[in-house]
């Protein structure tokens, strides 16, 4: 099998090999900031496109970006007069109205605005908005930090995302060590849609669609919730939450999201469940990774 060395995606959007070991160092101030919110993923191998890649070590956010975190970003753009960036990054709540066979007007009116949803994943954000968030977050995290310690925060490459999801077991189906969607106590391990097999079909683009309203949403914090809080269910070996289901996650790779969402059936929220990304959606959020600037 062909082997390729996969190096960290640099600030110049090229692949470079790091000349030092990238790992947690409690004496460095930037890593103190990372400790609570990011999990450390050591270098390891991932199988992708018939090749075995070596993914260099990186940090990955324990949760996807939340409504509360994204609001701080948007508010800062307004406060600093970056109106054009705000227009690109603002949330389009009408995405709730485009989910087939459902009526989510109430979520469209409240999901991004009410404090009760601050800890829930932000959705209906464009990839341009997610990229701007990463740039803003990079600047904020590096404030007051010596230049030699600076990190870049960005969307993950597919190989990095898979490395964080599969961990020590390449080609693992889900982030947990089981083929089942419930644990030994009968509790669900992820947020997905439960629906009869006969109600699921594929559209012309090859994406799954639910063709009846005979569905059961597993996230029922209250009567209209379909998304679970960003930090819910159980973390994986890197202390990362909800890589399967809840919201599909944007990748740095062109036009792809991964991991499935609350609107996908259990068999389509696997680690390697990849779909085409066509724009802001109520089923898509994003998670960030941190790497060194070479």
From TrEMBL:
Pfam families: FGE-sulfatase
Name of this protein: Sulfatase-modifying factor enzyme-like domain-containing protein
Residues in Sulfatase-modifying factor enzyme-like domain copies: 53-256
SUPFAM superfamilies for this protein: C-type lectin-like
InterPro entries in the record: CTDL_fold, Sulfatase_Mod_Factor_Kinase, SUMF_dom, SUMF_sf
Top-level lineage group: Bacteria
GO molecular function: formylglycine-generating oxidase activity
């Amino acid at each position: 099998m062909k082997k390729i060395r996969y190096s960290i995606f640099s600030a110049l959007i090229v692949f470079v090999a790091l000349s030092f070991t990238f790992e947690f160092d409690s004496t460095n101030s930037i890593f103190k900031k990372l400790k609570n919110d990011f999990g450390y993923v050591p270098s390891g191998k991932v199988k992708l496109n018939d090749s075995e890649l070596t993914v260099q070590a990186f940090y990955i956010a324990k949760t996807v970006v939340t409504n509360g975190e994204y609001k701080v970003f948007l508010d800062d753009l307004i406060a600093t007069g970056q109106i054009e960036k705000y227009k690109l990054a603002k949330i389009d709540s009408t995405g709730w109205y485009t989910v087939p066979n459902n009526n989510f007007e109430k979520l469209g009116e409240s999901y991004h605005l009410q404090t009760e949803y601050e800890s829930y994943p932000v959705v209906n954000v464009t990839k341009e908005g997610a990229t701007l968030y990463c740039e803003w977050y990079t600047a904020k995290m590096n404030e007051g930090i010596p230049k030699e310690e600076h990190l870049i925060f960005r969307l993950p490459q597919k190989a990095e995302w898979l490395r964080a999801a599969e961990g020590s077991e390449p080609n693992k189906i889900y982030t947990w060590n089981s083929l089942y969607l419930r644990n030994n106590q009968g509790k669900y391990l992820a947020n997905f849609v439960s629906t009869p097999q006969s109600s699921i079909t594929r559209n012309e683009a090859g994406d799954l669609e639910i063709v009846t309203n005979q569905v059961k949403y597993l996230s029922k914090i209250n009567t209209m919730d379909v998304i679970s809080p960003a930090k819910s269910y159980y973390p994986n070996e890197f202390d990362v939450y909800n890589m399967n289901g809840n919201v599909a996650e944007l990748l740095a790779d062109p036009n792809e999201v991964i991991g499935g969402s609350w609107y996908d059936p259990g068999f389509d929220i696997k680690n390697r469940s990849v779909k085409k990304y066509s724009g802001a959606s109520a089923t898509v959020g994003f998670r960030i990774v941190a790497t060194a600037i070479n």
